[in-house]
Design brief:
- This protein has 210 residues and is α/β, with parallel strands linked by helices.
- The protein has one domain: DHBP synthase (Alpha-Beta Complex).
- The protein has six helices and eleven strands.
- Strands 1, 2, 3, 4, 5, 6, 7, 8, 9, 10 and 11 form an eleven-stranded mixed β-sheet that branches.
- The longest helix has 12 residues.
- The chain starts with a strand and ends in a 14-residue tail after the last strand.
Length: 210
């Protein structure tokens, strides 16, 4: 049975976020709000939790999981970034973008793409997620909360609780999120390639004109 934390979207209660962080440190999986939709998150270094995250989402090891970071300084420890990539990252962070980058050795091999050694990274622009990351003390491994067999992400925490309460250890309710996934941009091969158009505006990254 999942613990349900109702937090203020702009001024989340530190006591509740501390409890949620403890659950994540203990190997739990949580549904958390972001600037795109709700996401499933777990501890980066917990193999069992990462496997359960994939099962809940209904994806295999070829699906990129994403590291949710507080800022670009944190991101640099997990991805190799050149000057050109860094300039583009600065335009899109924090924000509803996921960037596919070459993973460093800090990323467990089981979490990166099995053949390409890449990882998805993002810096969410949501006060609750940022506060949770600060309390947790390191990036969280995450994926958009799209239920198996569905195509649209979930944004209603009450509906998430009803559907996943026996499978999740925590749900952080900060109200409804935009019901749209992130824009995904692959920067791992030199030339930026848009893999998914989502909430993030490509014009803001200079990737689309007109």
């Amino acid at each position: 049975m999942s613990q349900y934390f109702e937090v203020h979207p702009d001024n989340p209660q530190p006591r509740l976020l501390k409890q949620a962080a403890q659950i994540l440190h203990g190997g739990g999986i949580a549904a958390v709000p972001t600037d795109s939709s709700y996401a499933l998150v777990c501890h980066l270094d917990d193999k069992a939790a990462a496997m359960q995250l994939r099962r809940l989402r209904g994806v295999d090891d070829k699906h990129h999981l994403t590291l949710l970071c507080r800022d670009l300084r944190e991101l640099a420890a997990y991805a190799r970034v050149d000057n050109q990539q860094y300039r583009l990252l600065k335009l899109g962070t924090p924000g509803p973008y996921t960037f596919i980058l070459e993973a460093t050795k800090e990323v467990p091999r089981r979490l990166s793409h099995p053949s390409r050694r890449t990882i998805g990274l993002r810096v969410p622009a949501h006060r609750v997620t940022q506060a949770l990351l600060a309390e947790f003390g390191q990036p969280l491994l995450g994926t958009t909360l799209i239920a198996p067999g569905e195509t649209e992400p979930m944004n209603d925490p009450q509906a998430i609780r009803e559907r996943f309460q026996k499978l999740l250890q925590a749900v952080i309710d900060a109200g409804a999120c935009p019901m749209q996934p992130t824009t995904v941009v692959d920067l791992s091969s030199g030339t930026p390639e848009v893999l998914r158009r989502g909430r993030g505006d490509l014009h803001a990254l200079g990737l689309e004109t007109g």
